[in-house]
Amino acid sequence: MMPPDRPMLDVVDLHTRFRTGDGVVRAVDGVSFSIHRGQTLALVGESGCGKSATALSIMRLIDPPGEIADGQIRLHSVDDNPPVDLRTLSERRLREIRGRRVGMVFQDPMTALNPVLPVGGQIAESIRAHRPVDRRRAWHDTIELLDDVGIAAPDRRARQYPHEWSGGMIQRALIAMAVAGRPDLLIADEPTTALDVTTQAQILELLQRLQREFGMAILFITHDLGIVADMADDVCVMYAGRIVERADVRTLFTQPAHPYTQALLAALAGFDRSPTRAEPIPGGVPHPLHLPDGCRFHPRCVLSRRLAADGRRETAVVPRDRESVIVLRNCIRPVDGRDIGGPSLRPVAAGHDVACWEANDGAAIGIARP
Amino acid sequence: MTGAVKSTLHDSESALVAVRDLKKHFPMRRRFASEGADHIKAVDGVSFDIPAGRTLGLVGESGSGKTTVGRSILRLIEPTAGEILFDDVNVLALRGRALRGVRRQMQMVFQDPVASLNPRMTAAEIVGEGLQVHRVARGRDLRERVAGLMRRVGLSADDMDGYPHVFSGGQRQRIGIARAIALDPRFIVCDEPVSALDVSVRLQILNLLDDLRRERGLACLLITHDLTVVRRFCDDVAVMYFGRIVETGSAENIFANPRHPYTKALLSAVPVPDPDSRTRRFVLPGEVPDPLNPPSGCPFHPRCPFAVDRCRTDIPDLISWSGAAPRHRTACHYADQDLPLPVTVSAP
Fold this sequence. Notes:
The structure holds two protein chains of two kinds. By secondary structure, chain A is an alpha/beta fold. Chain A folds into three domains: 1-101 and 183-254, 3-Layer(aba) Sandwich (Rossmann fold); 115-176, no CATH class; 257-342, no CATH class.
């Protein structure tokens, strides 16, 4: 998957959990990936899969009762300095890195700015937080930044308050702030989810242009496979706190190997105007405190059910929803004596990893692709 | 009814629901005379028909007026002008008992399955409330009917006594749908019914709505910003921009042969889940106009790549053109020319 050159960011076996009154939520449960300079890695998944918790962990913005329990977050430098581990870095050094070497853009632009201060002043303030410049210089740079991200009449606009701006304009301004320090890595957490589709197209185009200009790596978090196809070089598909499939974008869309990825793509094909109706994925995303044993996807898995019905593998009868269900024994086995198990990522092809005991590749499973 | 409003979808077929020149203007308090208009025209002359058993997709971005249309039809808000004909009866002229009788036949499925269910009522109470209020059933009969409705939407009768918080988003939306069909309506308005749901459960809910429409011959108004939903689940489409319908026709035609530049831009902006289709994107510049300072002429002209002088002065009517498919109508002076959008992005 990855070219041989050095990555910008290595996340290794990251574990982030939240202690709640009802138990421990393992929001991120052993996640590893790398992003290279100038490349975009998409982290795709549904609500509660841990994609935002992964992003916040990288920025070390996890507050109690949450904690980063284990793992490494290695940020490499463009020159020859050794990488730093953001997980163990001091708060003071971390502040230098946030905003300067790592920028972040969030989902809801309307809540990101202070409503009682003019937009331009807030951007200028963030510039001064990272660079020793006077007010006049910061204001000048603010106008330049706004102009650069396509805000018309930036002089006049900068004096306005957030409510006078549209969501798309504010997201542009926030992107301008995030890239003001020319970061090596930009983390974009669902940056267009709250926006209209034509505005979304504008923002995606802006991010692509900025990446071409500055060569920054982008960690793009989304639930939208259409955006993944548009933006990503590499993709990690997350489900219930884990990466279940990792591949370059073309492989993921043409030869998806994990039954979850296949089902997501098949569900999208279900929106095509065709006389046959695609089967939706049964059930819903599991509750984070009540994850299924074994493979976390197995209660919804078509492959597991088909192989169980086939009768050529060892099956087990488990109670579920006041009924008994026959499943593959393989899919429910606990792993390494841990309370919640599940298959780990293993390669099915060069640069293509899948966390499924039964998957070979898309063709072997034979789930129809459009 | 006025003779001027010919821009309807099904002139020949009999419509169960017919909306005629619907307007909703919200008054604005002006501080200065220079502040422009004294009201916002959220909906400004919208007309369409929905026959029984068919789904009309009302598409638009935020601020287009699509939700205001849906709420006006159900009289959740009072329109400023126009007619809403249900079985040829103008709903806007009805009061009291007559209005309640029609309302029973028109139901709504809301976007947010959390906010639209009362957290202090059980699933059975929520689903059965309408049956009770309209004195259709009570006691054991009520409970049996509710159990049947729950099963029909894919829930178990054992779920009846659960409160909304124990259900997932998809299950809550099923409860909302069971509530909507409890009184055997003939028309339902679905306002962004799957936008708040996980991608993997959207198709379940849309298939359920589609099955119910077929079974019961429901007329359905599906309000959405999501064109992929429209393409799969709607017979007809009306695209709204700035309070007006700018293009309408059969879903097949709108997707295969869009003629309004805004429709073309919308279709082009939807990310396609195919890494090989990256180069075909057109990015529409600018933003939706300020409703307090509406542009002259065609409201889309400030963003339109093809706008000429005429577009700045004349508001185009929603009309057919020579060679247009039946029912296909476009509010563009140049609909007959099928101008191709320039491609502004070619990703590496």
